[in-house]
């Protein structure tokens, strides 16, 4: 991303939107990671990092972030982008998570960020996030970066509990993923619309399998 000065007000908005303590329910979701843990495919720090890289480069970047850009720039009307996400997010638990978290964030925005205006707000979480940010004047590139960083950070903390990993291991993963988060945010700014929905089939299958696990820590 360009080395431009970050407005302190924008930084404060992004820190609030991306705060893990914001009650959106992100701590309840693994977005398929738990299926890999149950299968023994992911068992340690290296495995969590590898899974996160795949998730970030595919579903997070080509579905969430690309939809955020299209809605924020007007490339596609917000309601159409919302409907496109309905069609693209196939695993039922992930779809429900996106809607539930979106509803929670939409309820919080008037109190947390009154300068974003009263809405109306879309249904999916990633779209509520980006529209709240850009309506407060936050540059789109920064909003994308904050969203991806927040999603990865939340999943790392969930992995710390579920694998389990130590907190220091979690921070090592975050440190190594920072460059990829920056690259992914920049990539989403310029990726063609035709790439929307490009994801890893194995990831979607794991997300679908999650609801059939015998024991679960997470809702997705």
List its traits.
0% strand, 9 helices, mainly alpha, 220 residues, 66% helix
Could you say which overall geometry the principal axes of the C-alpha atoms support? globular
Q: Let me know the average pLDDT.
A: 93
- What gyration radius follows from the Cα positions, in whole Å? 16 Å
Distance between the termini: 32 Å
Q: How many strand elements?
A: 0
Helix % is: 55-70%
Q: How many helical stretches?
A: 9
How large a portion of the residues is in β-strands, by DSSP E?
under 5%
- Strand pairing plus helix content: what structural class? mainly alpha
Would you list the SSEs in sequence order as H and E?
Answer: HHHHHHHHH
Please mark out the parts with pLDDT under 50 across 5 or more consecutive residues, or reply none: none
Largest sheet: none
Question: Which SSEs are present, and which pair or pack?
Answer:
Layout (H helix, E strand, L loop, with lengths): L7 H10 L15 H7 L5 H29 L4 H11 L3 H21 L12 H11 L4 H23 L4 H24 L10 H9 L11
Give an overview in words.
The chain has 220 residues and is mostly helical. The protein has helices at residues 8-17, 33-39, 45-73, 78-88, 92-112, 125-135, 140-162, 167-190, 201-209. Helix 3 runs antiparallel to helix 7 (140-162), helix 5 runs parallel beside helix 6 and helix 7 packs antiparallel against helix 8 (167-190). The two termini are 32 Å apart. The model has no long low-confidence stretch (mean pLDDT 93).
């Amino acid at each position: 991303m360009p080395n431009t000065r970050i407005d302190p007000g924008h930084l404060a908005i992004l820190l609030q939107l991306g705060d893990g303590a914001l009650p959106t329910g992100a701590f309840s979701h693994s977005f398929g990671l738990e299926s890999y843990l149950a299968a023994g495919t992911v068992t340690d720090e290296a495995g969590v990092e590898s899974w996160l890289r795949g998730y970030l480069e595919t579903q997070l970047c080509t579905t969430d972030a690309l939809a955020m850009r299209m809605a924020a720039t007007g490339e596609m009307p917000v309601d159409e982008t919302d409907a496109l996400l309905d069609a693209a997010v196939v695993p039922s638990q992930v779809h429900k998570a996106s809607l539930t978290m979106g509803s929670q964030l939409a309820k919080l925005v008037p109190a947390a960020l009154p300068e974003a205006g009263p809405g109306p707000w879309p249904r999916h979480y990633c779209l509520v996030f980006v529209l709240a940010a850009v309506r407060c004047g936050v540059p789109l590139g920064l909003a994308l970066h904050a969203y991806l960083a927040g999603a990865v950070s939340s999943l790392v903390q969930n992995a710390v509990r579920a694998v389990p990993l130590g907190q220091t291991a979690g921070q090592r993963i975050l440190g190594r993923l920072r460059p990829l988060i920056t690259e992914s945010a920049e990539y989403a700014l310029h990726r063609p619309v035709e790439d929307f929905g490009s994801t890893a089939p194995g990831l979607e299958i794991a997300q679908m399998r999650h609801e059939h696990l015998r024991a679960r820590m997470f809702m997705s």
